[in-house]
Design goal:
4 strands, elongated, HtpX_protease, cell membrane, zinc, Pept_M48_protease_HtpX
Amino acid sequence: MARTRYAPDRGLTRRMGLTMFLIGLLYVVFVGVLIAAFGNAWPFIVLVAGGFLFAQFWFSDRIAAYSMGAREVTPEQAPELHGAVDRLCALADMPKPKVAIADTDVPNAFATGRSQKKAMVCATTGLLRRLERDELEGVLAHELSHVAHRDVAVMTVAAFLGVLAGLITRIALWTGLSRGGRNNNALLLLIPLVSAVVYVISFLLTRVLSRYRELSADRTGALLTGRPSALASALTKVSGQMGRIPTRDLRQAEPFNAFYFAPALSGDGLSRLFSSHPTLEQRLDRLGRLSRELGQP
């Protein structure tokens, strides 16, 4: 992590390193299986895998921001938002990221970027309308924590590898099966099965990391501002307002839950195992304990 005044989280650093190692190993094994299955097409498979991985690393932040409707704004266009980011960056002693607004009533915020210099912090118009100043700063401190710890870059790359596995599988099957051969029927069964296993494992690994990183950002963001209660208030308000947003809008935002401050749709029961965020109760409990540690009500 780059040196800032955000409290370091060695547990998060270890988890990020382990997640990337396991997903990278899984990805290498997957590409190796494809090369073994389609021996003649191995240069094409390696080229596609390397090319897409390079593109994801360099352009993932722009792709994510565009997909979520982020529009960069100037201090004149959004003075309150820029003022809050300025104060927090000065407090954290970190470079100021780009500041953006997404025009949607879903109250949320997110951060993107592979480094602090390339980072962007975005708040939705729905969030800006609903939060008080100290609550907004609590949410922004949470998002800037993701930038300082660089876990947003790890999540972006890790989440993409599962999607890339499926894409490479389709390309490999198309190029290999179009040539014909006696093993085509076996490949039709084996390759999609291996791809599905790769996707499921990468999905579960990123979900476990995602839940931990949200708790880490809650803690380090609240420590930076010194007001855990403001972040808890924002969490309660945002989660409560989600039920008033049209389901269609929430479902449009749901694919990006792993990047959001709060999930657009939260499940119950078994679906919580696959959630990108810890439960609201868990987050409020952690913030409550942190308030008591700091001697606050």
